[in-house]
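agent: user wants the structure for Dolichol-phosphate mannosyltransferase subunit 1 from Cyprinus carpio. delegating to structure tool.
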Amino acid sequence: MASRRGTAKTRVQSDKYSVLLPTYNERENLPLIVWLLVKYFGESYRNSVSDLHVVPGTAYIHGIQHASGNFIIIMDADLSHHVSKLFMVKQKEGGYDLVSGTRYRGDGGVYGWDLRGANFIKQVLLRPGASDLTGSFRLYKTEVLKKLVEQCVSKGYVFQLEMIVHARQLGYTVGEVPISFVDRVYGESKLGGNEIVSFLRGLLTL
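agent: tool returned. relaying tokens verbatim.
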């Protein structure tokens, strides 16, 4: 028993987290969000962050390929997502392959948007076994994320949805933690007419 405890403790201490920040017209936010990440991890998870990648949305895969941690945390760079240890805690509790932030369970919520109708349609069509399909605040095991990216063909908002669908198809375990999503503080939204049409096409394809 003592030996197993020692092994588990060593594994937790050796875990490393890469943080990936896909950006879109949000460079005003970067000094603040990087400061928040450094401050938070410095206080709560000292020596656990192996690298931080700030990449354009189009270079998403490049950031994943160069991540050195055994876990990757992905969060928006528009300050919609608040730095939280709940993802790491949840992953350790259940050994999940990925942990997704959900706006539709527990204390989760959406402020500045109303996305319940769109989420209901996705649930009815896909029945994915996850409550929030398009949220981008997630923690992945690095090898799982790389495998899922290989499977995905979508771009834009439907990409996040496809990741969850493939995760279920491949038998990966998905945990969820409630999050509060607040509309962007700075930067320009990339949700336009073309993105909406692309999302609907991708949804029907899946």
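agent: one observation worth passing along. Strands lie at 17-23, 49-56, 71-74, 98-102, 109-111, 138-141, 174-178, 180-182.
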